[in-house]
Give the backbone structure.
Amino acid sequence: MDWQRLLVSYLVGFVLLNVLLGLMAYMTWFERRVLARLQHRVGPNRTGPFGLLQPIADGIKLLAKEDIVPANADRLVFLVAPLLSFALAPLGAAVIPFGETLHLFGVDVPLLVADINVAVLYVLALGSVGVYGIILGGYASGNRYSLLGALRSTAQVISYELVLGLSLVGVLILSGSLSLQDILREQQRTLVIGPLTLPNWYILSQPLAFALFLIAAVAETNRAPFDLPEAETELVAGYFTEYSGFRFSFYFLAEYINMIVVSLLAATLFLGGIDGPIADGVWWLALKALFFLFFYVWLRATLPRFRYDQLMGLAWKVLLPLALLNIALTGLVRLWGIGAL
Amino acid sequence: MIDFSQPTPVILSEVRLITPTRRELVLNMGPQHPSTHGVLRVRLTLEGETVIACDPVIGYLHRGVEKLGESHRYAQFVPWTDRTDYVAAPSNNLGYVLAVEKLCGIQAPERAQYWRMIMAELTRIASHLVWLGTHALDIGALSVSLYTFRDRELILDIFEKFCGARLTTNMMEIGGFSREIPPDLPEMVREFCRYFPKAIRQYEDLLTENPIWLARTKGVGVIEPEVAINYGLTGACLRGSGVNYDVRKAMPYLLYDRVEFEVPLGTHGDVYDRYLVRMEEMRQSIRIIEQCLEQVPTDGPLMAYESPYVIPPHKNVMTTAEDMQRHFIWVIKGFSPPKGEVYHAVEHSKGELGYYIVSDGSPIPYRLRIRSPDFVNLQSLPYMAQGAMLADIVALIGTIDIVLGSVDR
Amino acid sequence: MALSVLVFWLLALVSILGALGVVVARNPIHSAIGLVLSFLNVAAIYLVARAEFLAVVQVIVYAGAVIVLVVFVTMLVHPDDLPEFHGRRPLRVATGLILGIALLAEVTAAILARGLRGAPGPWTEETVAAVGGNTSALGQVLYSEFMLPIQLTAVLLLAATIGAIVLARPEAVSERLAVARRLLTISLAHPRGLDQPEPPLALPAGRDERVKPAGGGRPIVLARSADEFTERPAWGEWRPR
Amino acid sequence: MSELSATHFLLLSAALFIIGMVGVLTRRNVLVIFMCIELMLNAVNVSLIGFAWELHQLTGQVFALFVIAIAAAEAVVGLGIVMALTRRADTVDIDELRQLRE
């Protein structure tokens, strides 16, 4: 066992986790500011310059609140469910490559926590296990709104997970690998079509898959216009109606971490990740992810909410056939490309 | 087809069919719920997400306003009308004041009538803006509510300029207005009329052609015209179903027969039609206000001081003994209208708002009854809700446009 | 003892505890939690056995889909009284336990006394790595030797999907709805359907200036006086009585 | 037993299988019985993977994959049946369901 490598990847993971938590805190600030601008408001601007200390103030407030357990809750499950949600959320970032290998003090530091050869499936598996935090929390609260939120969420996540997975198959066919590192390497090549020199980003060769992925990712993270599990105007707060204090904040933070991870993933899978026109590096990834995060907020400011049956109809009747079509087309093109047709 | 002449027979086995089974969920929506617009409680029987039965429970905001009216002198009751439909206070004032004036046989001067119309139409816009914002918010369109409340502020500023209050205006007085119109008010209203069509376009950009908005509102909560009439619906709930009934046209009061406007009627009777109708009503209100501003005399009396039922003019109270005594009696004892009963309805932003007053010749009404439009309109909720999805319920509550202060009174 | 054996026993212990939880828990949701725990640890054991693809599939399919479905159905079937009766059938429990322990003893003895060993195949760690990892190797085997079975599995899944849709098709709530509508609405309401196509419009003919396109493919009708559209509504004919 | 071999996998498999079996025999809730069946299927997979690992064969993994696919199909149909049954009988107690048949 190579202990040095293990230690290095542990350290990278530790740094990444902390950066992610910090980012997530500021994601709440970012969302509130952007949303406020879109709505002719100012947003938080009292705590620190530009309200930059607002996330910290919010965190302190949430930690200081009473942790209430309802009388007819399933106590143990109720207490554990938010932790489950929160703990699983950042794991997806572990497989995202943040840059080339660094050489620090004579040690190779890969800017990637774990290069798993089934990385894409791993991310999908995390998403499917992540739903337990929601469903168990909703069930254990002993509240009907929570129960309905949990039911909605289950159906939604299962359906959109399918679309998410199938939309990625096209990318997998093109790259021929499940490893994000390989997928990234494929995208770093350039594509020459006549006089044009384009990056081989999969958004260009897989635009349909990209659109499907984006829609499914929004649904998967329970964000507007797919925020039915927590639709505050129907289900009060959905599965976390009964939660308060830091357990509430765990659900809240898990949602934001999921958004960041999904944005990073979308940037890596379709927009070439760290690849950029000049000076490849983590800043390009950050820029692309930031665009997706803005997109999330933009959607929330613009669109009404779907109804439950419309949401399921969209997944099963529109997105799923489109994803299958995309797979078939990509497969045909690929076969034609290698001369098998 | 149901025979309308016969009462519907209740069959016991059928009653069992609608009592909730173990599989069904009885969900209490409200009285503390973000989208029941106050303290409405709706008891829903759900199968999955489908609503089997819907039972609105009201009365959580009941303050006995009608009974209070029977223990207050006529002029004292005007502020109470503010507190029934608190997002459209001037219209409530207007309905009551017109009823009392009808009872006493007073006619407010022309100039006051025009200003009453302007204020009533501004109120309609303000109320529709609150409706639009909350309705869109219920369906999930977050930003519209902030835009509408931004523009409602302009109307509230006009109210503030006019009478000093923004929400509970207590604006109308029996006989007209006792204070002069602020000189820069007409320009303020004109400025608003120039600005507001742009704002409507902004809301429509966000909603009217939005596919999710269409999916959430089209075909949802359909009320057929005959059903709407059976329920006694009024306002946009009735006109959305294509029935032409607008008190301003059917029984013109004030000077509505001197202005030109159109009554929008829906074609399908669903949530979307009611949305379209209300949007058009706001445009028509702007038209009415513009015409009123053109026609209103720049000076002239604002109060029907010739009537003995009206508070004497301020200057005379200070200078003449007779008016001082009259004022003293008016304030301490109140005026005593003739015996009789009267009903007067106005086209409130939510429908027909009627005040029914029985006078026994004393300074206090013998009986006061408020026909509040949203109380009547709310009855259609169970009809619209059956077979709808849970998420539709909030859209349906929104489309009726209720204010619980007016429903419960 | 090798590290891998230690890891294996740790994971096996947790997965057995989870499995016991399934059987012992009174609440079916707790059973499901135990099952997920067990499955996740089994997936980790697959990783120990260098079956990465299967490990992930195990998590996605079992933990992510099958158990979620079970939990979903559990919550749907009895939203109100989920904590259930435990089988108060002592005789049956005793029989089950005795049978189980006897079988466990037999099988354990058989496993420990196992003398039969199969012939090692070609897929050592090196050969698997040479074709690009477990997933690629599995794919190569799956789509060459097992082409027919995998097609058959696809057909099976399709059949199962259709079967499930038929089974779970919502029972007609229409009858109850019709009754509810008749009894619970105050007015003598009419039956109507949300799913029906929009009724054809009979807009006022020859009064085109009264019809204003309002958006969403819908017109609204503008009435100029109180006398218009009184015989019939703007949207068509009155229903015959 | 000091090196990891198929024997370990088989022992785990046997334990899981028999726990599942006892569950099927003793529990009354259809859904729990259903979960126990899944447990038994999964136990079989463990032994398949164990053999595949020991013998450097991928056939075992392929079989496990098929078992997972079939388990998913079984889950779908089984849960559909449970839904249909409970709709009619309003119970998940297997004894009551049996009484209904008579």
